[in-house]
Amino acid sequence: MSESSMTRPPTAAAHHTSLGVDNRKLGVWTFIGSETMFFATLITTYFVFAPVNRARPDFQDPRKFLDIELTTVLASILLASSLTMVLALSASRRGDRRSFTTWLLATVGLGLAFIGGQVYEFNHLYHEGLTLSSSLFGTTFFVLTGFHGAHVAVGVIWLLSVFFKVRAYPDSPENAMDVEIAGLYWHFVDLVWVAIFVLVYLI
Amino acid sequence: MAGHSEEHSAHAHPSDRFYWIVAGVLAVVTALEIGLFIVNEQHLIAKWLEVTLLLILSTIKGAAVVMFFMHLKGDAGIFKFVFLVPLAFATTLLLSFMVLFSDHVGIAG
After folding, report:
1. ipTM of the assembly?
2. Which chain B residues are closer than 8 Å to A52 by Cβ?
3. Looking at A194-203, B7-16, B18-27, B72-81, which range is the least confident one?
4. Which residues are within 8 A (CB) of A198 and not within 5 positions of it... i.e. 6 or more apart?
């Protein structure tokens, strides 16, 4: 093995499928498809149990608990992180290491800010009397938003691992694909919040 | 075939300026959503109209993220298939259960 092949990653051609696409990217899109079903199930459960929650003696009114100001900030943070993520991908394709580092770490920072905001929200709701077992609203709300928060946490870990793997040569086809598929997951997490923000907090 | 696919995705990369414009549109749509929510706290418009408008706005946001940030627009058809089919199934699931149980207080109660 030559010195250059030890330091530079292999080309992405090794991952091509008979369909003519990268098998890792196909795998992530398939995973995102399954995750779409997963979150649709949780959102459906939230709505199916909403009238049941209203009819029970332990009814808790979502409008009295949910803080639209904080949630708007969280939604803005995730939307901004989608922008920084796609700018990181663009920089990696150009081979602009400095911009790549800036935008990817900004994405990680925004992800951590979102998690921090959600921890604050959960802590606030807990002290207001809304818990996982206080009512059907509490159960369905915390399961849905908690799973989303867990996905954000996984995304932050994924982005950091990609950053440390590809930072030396972000523009190689192999590494650019690593950034792209991590970005796909990150944008999906943002996409789920677009749905949760409207369906749970605004409607 | 592989070469064709790579070539196909290679010329589908927009400029950074385009991404900033998309993000600006997303910010405006989010502001409209919040504005609509605040307006309807005074019950100025019918609830069904508020819900319809919010769903349209969020669909615009979601479509923009998928098409431009996730680059599904112009990407290989197999990616569209493995994402859009489950999305259609998920939407059908949500709507079906809403129709069946939206006023049903007996389920698991």
Report:
1. 0.86
2. 104-109
3. B7-16
4. B33, B54, B55, B57, B58
Q: Is the pLDDT of residue B2 over 70?
A: no
> Please, which residues 83-112 of chain A have a Cβ atom closer than 8 Å to chain B?
83, 85-87, 90, 93
Q: Is residue B109 pLDDT above 80, yes or no?
A: no
Q: What is the pLDDT of residues B35-59, one digit of tens each?
A: 998 888 887 888 888 889 999 999 9
Domain A31-202: CATH architecture, name and number where available: Up-down Bundle (1.20)
Collect all residues with Cβ–Cβ distance below 8 Å to A90 and sequence separation of at least 6: B13, B15, B16, B19
Backbone phi, psi, residue A94, to 5°: -80, -15
Domain boundaries, chain A: 31-202
Question: Does the pLDDT at position A16 exceed 80?
Answer: no
Closest Cα in chain A, distance from residue B103 (Å): 6
Q: According to the model, what pLDDT value does residue A11 have? A: 53
To the nearest whole angstrom, how far is the Cα of B44 from the nearest Cα of chain A? 15
SS3 labels along chain A: CCHHHHHCCCCHHHHECCCCCEHHHHHHHHHHHHHHHHHHHHHHHHHHHHHHHHHCCCCCCHHHHCCHHHHHHHHHHHHHHHHHHHHHHHHHHHCCHHHHHHHHHHHHHHHHHHHHHHHHHHHHHHHHCCCCCCCHHHHHHHHHHHHHHHHHHHHHHHHHHHHHHHCCCCCCHHHHHHHHHHHHHHHHHHHHHHHHHHHHHHC
